[in-house]
């Protein structure tokens, strides 16, 4: 069983301004309405984060672990095309900037089936990441005014149904275990005109993190003297 996950690490501005969700899937420049192709999450009203990396809800944070997948539509996308997510805060028309003093990390993962059970094993892999930049003794966050992100599906990804997972990690209170805040959204897609690549390395969710990784357990206000750069958690990127 194969899967694919893209990790984007982007960072943000000086103060906590809003929590958010990723309800809007983007395909070739077109942004869908809330929760059409993205499984509705349990925080769709509160916009609150997931903080436990071991809970089953860490996978997609569904409103209903048994029924949400079946009630979500499937977007048809081509291998090699551009996809992404748009963040929303509070309501359907309230766009959120990622303006938190944090290191947001976005994961997009694709699993080989739309069903929840198909994504429970080692079926996930990373296809993208964007990490904060370490310069002049501090981390800087390139996406401080970003409301959405996009990435390219590897052209060699085999055709089939996939689950695309977006994840952003806010690190403003990540100096203690369990302090990192994860914002998650999973879109359901059917990839067409794919190739014959073999994605990997494969990981499971939950299971991909322990919560003690240096990119998750970190004091961004007081970096150690030997700090040389941010280490994005998770597996290596599959280039396709």
Provide keyphrases for this structure:
240 residues; mainly beta; Coagulation Factor XIII, Chain A, domain 1; 3-stranded mixed sheet; globular
Please describe what this structure looks like.
The relative contact order is 0.27. This protein has a single domain (4-192), classed as Coagulation Factor XIII, Chain A, domain 1. The protein has strands at residues 4-9, 21-27, 30-31, 75-78, 82-88, 105-110, 133-135, 138-140, 148-152, 160-170, 181-192. It is 0% helix and 28% strand. The protein is built from no helices and eleven strands. With 240 residues, it is mainly beta. The strands form four sheets. It has a four-stranded antiparallel β-sheet with strand order 3-2-5-9, with no helix packed on it. The chain starts with a strand and ends in a 48-residue tail after the last strand. It is globular, with a radius of gyration of 16 Å.
CATH architecture: Distorted Sandwich
Strand order of the largest sheet: 3-2-5-9
Per DSSP, what share of the residues sits in E-state strands of 2 or more residues? 25-35%
**Amino- and carboxy-terminal Cα gap:** 17 Å
Class by alpha and beta content: mainly beta
How many helices does DSSP assign? 0
Shape: globular
Mean of residue pLDDT values: 80
Radius of gyration: 16 Å
């Amino acid at each position: 069983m194969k899967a694919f996950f893209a990790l984007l690490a982007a960072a943000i501005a000086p103060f906590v301004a809003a929590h958010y969700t990723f309800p809007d899937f983007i395909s070739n420049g077109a942004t869908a309405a809330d929760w059409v192709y993205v499984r509705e999450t349990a925080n769709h009203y509160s916009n609150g984060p997931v903080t436990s990396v071991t809970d089953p809800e860490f996978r997609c944070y569904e409103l209903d672990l048994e029924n949400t997948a079946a009630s979500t539509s499937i977007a048809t996308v081509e291998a090699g095309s551009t996809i992404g997510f748009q963040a929303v805060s509070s309501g359907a028309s309230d766009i959120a900037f990622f303006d938190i003093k944090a290191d947001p990390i976005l994961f997009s993962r694709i699993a080989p089936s739309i069903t929840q059970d198909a994504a429970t094993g080692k079926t996930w892999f990373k296809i993208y990441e964007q990490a904060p930049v370490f310069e002049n003794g501090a981390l800087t966050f390139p996406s401080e005014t970003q409301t959405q992100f996009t990435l390219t599906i590897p052209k060699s990804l085999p055709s089939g149904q996939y689950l695309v997972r977006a994840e952003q990690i806010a690190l403003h209170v990540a100096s203690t275990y369990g302090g990192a805040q994860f914002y998650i959204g999973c879109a359901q897609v059917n990839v067409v005109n794919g190739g014959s690549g073999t994605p990997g390395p494969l990981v499971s969710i939950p299971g991909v993190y322990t919560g003690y990784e240096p990119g998750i357990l970190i004091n961004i206000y007081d970096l150690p003297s030997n700090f040389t750069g941010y280490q994005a958690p998770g597996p290596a990127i599959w280039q396709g």
